[in-house]
């Protein structure tokens, strides 16, 4: 395991980090999965911030990221990113998943975030194969941590057993 990468299995809304990442959609208006869980646990302040962002820039494009308050969550911020919907594994889909991780990390660093927790973006409702998604997530984070001086720790939060097993293998090698 890399010293600055942690792996846990559980509910990301309970994680104590400076920021947690939400697997949102382009509307930023909430949804199911981890997005629903974050808005429920964090309360209406998160949606209020999302509405302001929508008024300013009209949502969030796939592969990009925006930041809001964490509301009632233990985390100070929520970074909302939009992963790609998986269709056929075109290079563009893989690149967009990498961008979702990378742009979340860049936005975290810009906001002085030292610890950040990620869910397994796109691997639920958006049907990205979990093994491919885990490889992209781990390689993107490792690469980012080499050069960056602000973000000190990245926590991968896996909800299901399959993802947890995949990350365990990848991170222990
Ligand atoms: N904590 C951590 N991980 C979770 C939690 C939780 N509380 N709940 C689910 N997961 P998904 P996507 C895992 O579907 O595929 C929403 O409707 C889950 O097991 O939440 O990027 C958005 O609004 C899975 O591994 O996100 C979008 O419309 C992972 O989170 C769409 O879903 C991602 O699953 C985004 O789809």
- CA radius of gyration is 15 Å
Model regions low in confidence, pLDDT < 50 over at least 5 residues? none
CATH fold assignment: Leucine Aminopeptidase, subunit E, domain 1
What is the CATH superfamily?
A: Leucine Aminopeptidase, subunit E, domain 1
CATH class: Alpha Beta
What do the pLDDT scores average to? 97
Helix-residue proportion: 40-55%
- The arrangement of helices and strands along the chain is EEHHEEHEHEH
- Number of helices, where a helix is a run of at least 4 consecutive DSSP H or I residues: 5
Domain Macro: 1-173
Protein name: O-acetyl-ADP-ribose deacetylase (Regulator of RNase III)
SSE inventory with pairings:
Elements lengths: L4 E5 L9 E5 L9 H10 L1 H14 L7 E5 L7 E5 L9 H20 L4 E4 L11 H18 L5 E6 L2 H12 L1
Parallel strand pairs: 1-6, 2-4, 2-5, 5-6
Antiparallel strand pairs: 3-4
Helix pairs in contact: 3-4, 4-5
What do you see in this structure?
This is O-acetyl-ADP-ribose deacetylase (Regulator of RNase III). It holds the Pfam family Macro. InterPro entries: Macro_dom, Macro_dom-like. By secondary structure, this protein is an alpha/beta fold. The protein has one domain (4-172): Leucine Aminopeptidase, subunit E, domain 1, CATH 3.40.220. It has helices spanning 33-42, 44-57, 91-110, 130-147, 161-172, and strands at 5-9, 19-23, 65-69, 77-81, 115-118, 153-158. Strands 1-6-5-2-4-3 form a six-stranded mixed beta sheet, sandwiched between helices. Helix 4 (130-147) links the parallel strand 5 (115-118) and strand 6 (153-158). Helix 3 runs parallel beside helix 4 (130-147) and helix 4 packs across helix 5. The structure holds ligand AR6.
């Amino acid at each position: 395991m890399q010293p600055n990468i942690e792996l846990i299995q559980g509910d990301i809304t309970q994680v104590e980090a400076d920021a947690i990442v939400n697997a949102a959609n382009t509307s930023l208006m909430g949804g199911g999965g981890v997005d629903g869980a974050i808005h429920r646990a964090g309360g209406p302040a998160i949606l209020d911030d999302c509405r302001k962002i929508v008024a300013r820039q009209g949502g969030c494009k796939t592969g990009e990221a925006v930041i809001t308050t964490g509301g009632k969550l233990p985390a100070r911020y929520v970074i909302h990113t939009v992963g790609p919907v998986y269709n056929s594994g075109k290079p563009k889909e893989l690149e967009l998943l990498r961008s979702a991780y990378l742009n979340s990390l860049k936005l975290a660093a810009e906001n002085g975030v030292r610890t950040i927790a990620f869910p397994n973006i796109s691997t639920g409702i958006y049907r990205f194969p979990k093994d491919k998604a885990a490889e992209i997530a781990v390689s993107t984070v490792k690469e980012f941590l080499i050069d960056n001086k602000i973000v000190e720790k990245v926590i991968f939060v896996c909800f299901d057993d399959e993802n947890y097993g995949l990350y365990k293998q990848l991170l222990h090698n």
